[in-house]
Design goal:
By secondary structure, the chain is of the alpha+beta class. About 45% of the residues lie in helices and about 25% in strands.
Length: about 700
């Protein structure tokens, strides 16, 4: 037996190395989605890698075939590959992108690159190449192109302004909407810094963007103003985004500017409406309070004082009633302009309400505040043309200076109290708040507080004054007059508490009590004096109360008083307020059957025209005319005219305030029908009046 042995170690090692290399190549190709092939042109043999088969979706055991590959080419790409198989084309390197349809119907995008191997004489020996599955990259490219297209369309056609800026914030590209918004062409925007067309007061916002982005934030939003070439201001909602690359490195800024000018205008208008008076454009109470709060805080830091001037236009109602509300509004606007022109630049003038204004002066002492008030008084005293007529305007001014404990409320209260003292002392003057004013204001406050409890504590009572028929001397009626018996102060003058009741609205429930009490008293007296009537005063504030006619109707039903026996006396100011409202209200009262009289007739400004328009039954001549009877010829003439006019209109006339026999005699000679006053009888409690009623008292009037 013979044995022949060959050493194949080297061959074995080489084979292992080859297998290892092939394995690594296969792994690499699989990872890279890259298959390889080799075509022996001489023998026609085609070989390809396992990854090549996978890309084509073929079984690796399937024999490679050029025809098989070409049969899988997408029909739409087949024309592109025409001629590739010719030797001429095979002698050149090719780089082709096309699609294949695999056996599982999947469409894949592939990239084929080939290279020829030539013999030394130039004969083509082999064609080697690779096939890469590019489907994912092609799809990614398509998605990116679509995104870029969408961005391009969105950027260029966006309705809001957009810009791309470098990392220094300088625009490198702008869209048409931004050009339109800023009123500049792209050439005037690209390469220019934003500060060139940012409102000066908003330039600091640019630094705020840099600070925020430096702190690690990639977005920033704010509202800012820009200047148009013509100087106009526009508002924008500015949104800035820092765009980074895949590595997180900053690339550029993407900025959007949304035009919010319209919204800002509306906001400013709403703020203006909320904090300013619609008639004069001045700050209103809310803004005034805010200015006072800030003024007091600032003065305390600086160790200075705040002065407040409370101003009321004197006799404004006269202008408003005689010339009309439009003229009244014109007067208020003119007053506002004049006050604003008389104060210092840093001071505030506000309309407090109606014909009242308030001036706040920062960092002043009393002397300086008085000087400002004197300037205001001087400009207001100048003649002015209102409603086509020359009008002389005066004002009453009150001053209060802040102390350490001052508040907005205390300053307004004290300056208001000083202003009322100016009115009491003749109007058209300036008064400074002091202890005397404080005392009076405190008294008024105490009176108001006590007045609120007086009704429930039954502190009110009624006195009655007879109304006498001058032809017979008989008492034909009585007027109910309110009195307040304070538990500590005794009988309080109506002149003191009635205005407070009017101002606070307490006159409404008090007036309702007066009406009911007077009607119940009348029912009792009519058991003896069947023809007796009752007159009750009704104020403007009562007439403005809801359903005043219903209140009167309810009282009549509860008490049983005949409507014809109740006379409601209305001051002339009622007829000069809201004409249409009072026309309806008086008509409602008249439908109940009650009588209506104008009290203090002749002291108003529109009585004659309203006598015809409103359903009144009687007039009461004011005592100021009666006082001059026998001594003042004009007064006698006026009373005679009133009596004659009333007779012509079928109105009953009563003279008020008769205090002498001479006055009574003159009135009787003027054919005045009725009278009342101290000469005949003073107002008296119900018990005393009852004796007049029971005795059917008559006066000697002949």
């Amino acid at each position: 037996m013979s044995v022949i042995a060959h050493d194949i170690t080297e061959r074995r090692a080489a084979q292992l190395a080859l297998e290892t290399s092939q394995h690594r190549l296969a792994v690499a190709q699989r990872t890279a989605h890259l298959g390889s092939f080799e075509l022996d042109v001489v023998t026609g043999e085609l070989t390809w890698s396992e990854e090549y088969s996978r890309i084509l979706g073929l079984d690796p055991a399937l024999a490679p075939s050029v025809d098989l590959v070409f049969s899988m080419v997408h029909p739409d790409d087949a024309a592109m590959l025409t001629g590739v198989r010719t030797e001429a084309n095979q002698r050149t390197s090719l780089d082709l992108d096309f699609r294949i349809i695999r056996a599982d119907s999947q469409v894949r995008c592939v990239r084929v690159q080939t290279a020829p191997e030539l013999a030394e004489d130039g004969t083509l020996l082999k064609v080697v190449g690779t096939m890469m599955d590019n489907t994912d990259r092609v799809e990614a490219d398509r998605v990116q192109r679509a995104a870029e297209s969408r961005f391009e369309i969105g950027f260029e056609q966006a309705a809001i302004g957009a810009a791309i800026a470098d990392l220094h914030g300088v625009p490198t590209r702008v869209n048409p909407a931004l050009c339109s918004f800023l009123g500049r062409s792209a050439e005037l925007l690209v390469g220019r810094r934003w500060t060139e067309f940012t409102h000066p007061d908003d330039v600091s916002l640019g630094q705020a963007v840099s600070t925020r982005l430096a702190a690690g934030h990639d977005t920033h939003r704010d509202e800012r103003r820009y200047l148009l070439p013509d100087g106009a201001i526009v508002w924008a909602l500015c949104s800035v985004t820092l765009v980074r690359d895949e590595m997180g490195e900053p690339q550029y800024f993407f900025t959007q500017l949304q035009d919010i000018t319209g919204r800002k205008v509306v906001e400013e208008e709403l703020v203006q409406q909320a904090l300013h008076d619609s008639l004069t454009g001045l700050p209103n109470r809310a803004l005034l309070t805010d200015r006072l709060i800030h003024g007091l805080a600032g003065s305390r830091r600086r160790g200075t004082q705040v002065g407040v001037i409370f101003l009321d236009v004197d006799h404004f109602k006269v202008v408003n009633d005689s010339l009309g509300h439009t003229s009244g509004d014109d007067l208020l606007r003119l007053a506002a302009e004049r006050i604003a022109g008389a104060i210092r630049p840093g001071d505030t003038v506000a309309r407090f309400g109606g014909d009242e204004f308030v001036v706040v002066c920062d960092d002043v002492n009393l002397i300086e505040t008085e000087q400002i008030a004197e300037r205001i008084l001087e400009v207001l005293n100048r003649p002015c043309l209102i409603g086509g007529q020359d009008v002389n305007v005066t004002a009453s001014l009150g001053i209060a200076i802040a102390d350490e404990a001052a508040t907005p409320e205390s300053l307004l209260r004290d300056s208001d109290a000083a202003m009322y003292r100016a009115k009491e002392r003749g109007r058209g003057r300036i008064e400074v708040f002091d202890e005397a004013v404080r005392s009076k204001a405190a008294q008024r406050l105490a009176t108001e507080s006590a007045l609120r409890r007086a009704l429930e504590r039954e502190e009110f009572t009624l006195h009655y004054q007879p109304i006498v028929d001058l032809s017979t001397g008989a008492m034909v009626g009585t007027e109910a007059l309110l009195r307040w018996r304070h538990p500590d102060r005794g009988l309080v003058s109506p002149a003191e508490f009635i205005p407070i009741a009017e101002d606070t609205g307490l006159i409404v429930p008090i007036g309702a009590w007066v009406l009911e009490t007077a009607c119940r008293q009348l029912v009792e007296w009519q058991r003896t004096a069947h023809a007796l009537t009752m007159s009750v005063n009704v104020s403007v504030r009562q007439m403005l109360a809801p359903e005043v006619a219903r209140l009167v109707e309810d009282v009549l039903q509860r008490t049983g008083v005949s409507p014809k026996d109740l006379c409601l006396e209305l001051t002339e100011s009622v007829f000069m307020e809201d004409v249409e409202y009072f026309e309806r209200t008086l008509a409602s009262l008249k439908r109940l059957g009650v009588r209506l009289a104008i009290d203090d007739f002749g002291t108003g400004y529109s009585s004659l025209s309203y006598l015809k328009r409103f359903p009144v039954d009687a007039v009461k001549v004011d005592r100021s005319f009666i006082d001059g009877l026998g001594t003042e010829p004009n007064d006698s003439a006026l009373v005679a005219a009133i009596v004659a006019m009333a007779a012509a209109l079928g109105l009953e006339v009563t003279a008020e305030g008769v205090e002498t026999e001479q006055q009574l005699s003159i009135l009787k000679g003027l054919q005045c029908e009725r009278a009342q006053g101290f000469y005949l009888a003073r107002p008296m409690p119900a018990a005393d009046m009852a004796r007049f009623v029971a005795g059917s008292h008559h006066w000697m009037v002949g």
